[in-house]
Amino acid sequence: MALLALSAALAAAASAAPDAAAPVSIDAAFPGGNIILDRIDGDDIFIRQDLRDTEGDWFYWAFRVRGAAGRTLAFHFTKGDVIGVRGPAASEDGGATWRWLGRERGADPEFRFTFAQDARDVRFAFAIPYLESDLRAFLRRHEGSPHLRAETLCTTAKGREVERLHAGSLDGRAEHRVLLTCRHHACESMASFALEGLLEAVLAETDDGAWFRAHAEVLAIPFVDKDGVEDGDQGKNRRPHDHNRDYAGESIHASVRAIRDFVPRWSEGRLRVALDLHCPHIRGTNNEWIYFVGGQDAGDWERTGRLAAILERIRESPLPYRAEDNLPFGKAWNTDSGPLKSFARWATELAGIRVASTIEIPYANARGAEVTPASARDFGRDLARALRHFLLATQ
User: Fold this and answer.
1) How does DSSP classify residue 323?
2) Residues 174-189: what's their mean pLDDT?
3) How many domains does the chain have?
4) What is the CATH number of the domain that holds 57?
5) What is the pLDDT of residues 337-346, one digit of tens each?
6) Residue 8 domain-assigned?
7) Distance of CA 339 to the CA centre of its chain
8) Which has the closest alpha carbon to 341: 385, 309, 297?
9) What pTM value is reported for the model?
10) Which residues, at least 6 apart from 359, have a Cβ–Cβ distance to it below 8 Å?
11) Distance between CA atoms of residues 43 and 48, nearest Å
12) Which of 26, 124, 195, 238 would you call most buried, defined as having the most Cβ atoms within 10 angstroms of its Cβ?
C-alpha cells in the first residue's frame, strides 16, 4: 500500500509540474490582436508590435499565450520601449477581465509573468481593450430603454457595421444636440470606457439623466475606425492618412464620409457640442493627465475653457482634471494647420456649434491616479454632468 501511495504521489507531482518541452503558442488571432513573434528561446519570448500601414512608429500591441501553464516566461520587445507606465494589461480569463501588472523598472523593455498551473488563454496588451463585444454588452444592459437607440452609420470596407447610437431625448424635439466620437485612432481604447460612462449617465435615474432625456439628444459614434479596432491596428498615422485627418476634400474612409453626410442633416442647427475622445501618447509630460486640445478658432477655445472650468469644479471621479492642463493651439505638438482637417476643425464649422474640441484621456495614469475601466467610466459621468451645466448656462 505504501508503494502504491508513493507511486500515486509521484504521478500527481509529475502531472502538476510544467512540461518544459510543451510548445508555447503566441498569437494575435482574436479581435484587437496585434503582435509579431520574432523567436522563442527557451523561456524568453522576443516580440514586437505590428505596424502594418502605420507611417513611422507607434506602440500598440496585444497578444495571447497558450501552452504556458506553470511556467515563468520573459517577454522582450524588440522594437522600442512599448510598455506603458503601469506595465502591461493582463487577462487570465480569455479577455473577460483585465488588470495592470505594474512596471518593472529596468534597462530593457520586457516583463515576466508566471502562469497558473491551469492557465489556458492568457492575454496581454498595451492597454485594456474595448471592442465591439464590449459595446454589445453595454447595449444588452440597456436593452429595451426608450432613451437609447442603436442604428448603423455605414458599412466599412471590410463589411463591418459602424454603430451609431442615439441617447437621451429621442422624439426629435430636443433643444440641444451633442455629438461624441471615439476611436478615430483604433488603439485608443481607454477613451471608449469614458464614452460608455457618459452614455450611462444620460440613461441613469439621476438629475443629470432626467435632464438629458428631457432636453438633449446625444449622438455617439463609438468606433470611427471600426475595422482598425477589430483588426488590432495602430490606427494613428495610418497611410495615406488616418481617420482623424480625413475631414477635408473627399474623405477616403467610409465612416468619415458618413459622419460628414449624416451629422449636418441630423443636427438641424441645434448641435451645441462636438467632442472627439482620444488617448494621448505612451507616457511623459501632458500624456499622463486629462486635457482638452484647442483649435485655431478663438471663440471656440474660449467656450471650451468655460466647459473645462465647469468640469474641474464638479468632478467627482477618481481621475483628476485641471483646466490648466488644457493644450491651446500653437503649444507643444498642437500646431497642425495644414490641408488635412481633423474632426474638431470640421465640427467648428457646423451650424449652431458652441464647442468643438478633442479631449485626451490617458491610457493608464492620470496625475498619479490609476486609469481603469471603472475610473474612466466615472470620468465620463462627470463629463456628462459638465455638459449639462454648460448647456444650461449657454441657452
Assistant:
1) G
2) 98
3) 2
4) 2.60.40.3120
5) 788 999 999 9
6) no
7) 27
8) 297
9) 0.94
10) 275, 276, 277, 278, 290, 291, 292, 293, 383
11) 17
12) 195
Residue 357 near residue 291, CB atoms below 8 Å = no
The answer to whether residue 144 is domain-embedded is yes
HSE-CB for 387 with a 13 A CA cutoff: 32
pLDDT score at 98: 98
Final residue in a domain of this structure, among 95, 125, 155:
125
One-letter amino acid of 152: T
Lowest mean pLDDT among 12-21, 88-97, 118-127, 169-178: 12-21
Which residues does 177 contact at the CB level (< 8 Å), separation at least 6?
216, 217, 218, 219, 266, 267, 268, 270, 271, 272
Answer yes or no: is 3 within a domain. no
| Residues 189, 215 within the same domain | yes
Peptide bond into 31 cis (omega under 30): no
User: Rounded to an integer, what distance in angstroms lies between the CA atom of residue 75 and that of residue 97?
Assistant: 21
Same domain assignment for residues 113 and 183: no
285: CB partners within 8 A, 6+ apart: none
Q: Once rounded to an integer, what is the mean pLDDT over residues 144-167?
A: 98
* pLDDT at residue 323 tops 70: yes
Distance CA 269, CA 260 (A): 14
Domain span at residue 218 reads: 132-393
